[in-house]
Design goal:
The chain is mainly alpha-helical. It has two domains: about 80 residues, Alpha-d-glucuronidase, C-terminal Domain (Alpha-Beta Complex); about 35 residues. The chain is about 70% helix and about 0% strand. The chain has three helices and no strands. Helix 1 runs antiparallel to helix 2. About 10% of the residues have low confidence.
């Protein structure tokens, strides 16, 4: 089961990288502004897929102690930065919203609504 988690998350990150490769094949067939905008978003998504893949796989490795049979978990040679200052702000706001939502849900589930 743990190996399936490792494999599926590595496959998912590779699929996100494939979207970038596929989009690159359309260069010159789409107007430059739209092409650049979509490419930026796909690259951002591919970068985040790697970050999340590593976070999830590392967590399962630490929790279970079961190593990846393919030796990938804990080795992040291909990780690339996927953040820019504007998106960092959005990520921080999203984390704050998510934390707030969980807190409210937790309080609601105990019969108290504080939010």
């Amino acid at each position: 089961m743990i190996q399936h988690i490792y494999d599926s998350h590595y496959e998912g990150a590779e699929s996100a990288a494939d979207y970038v490769r596929q989009w690159n094949s359309l260069k010159g067939r789409i107007d430059e502004e739209r092409y650049a905008d979509v490419l930026e978003r796909l690259e951002y998504q591919a970068g985040h897929a790697i970050v999340w893949r590593d976070a999830i796989c590392n967590w399962f490795f630490r929790a279970s102690g079961i190593p990846d049979a393919k030796g990938r978990v804990g080795h992040h040679a291909e990780r690339r930065a996927s953040f820019d200052p504007q998106r960092r702000l959005l990520s921080a706001l999203a984390r704050r919203w998510l934390h707030h939502s969980r807190f409210c849900y937790h309080r609601k589930s105990r019969g108290r609504r504080i939010c």
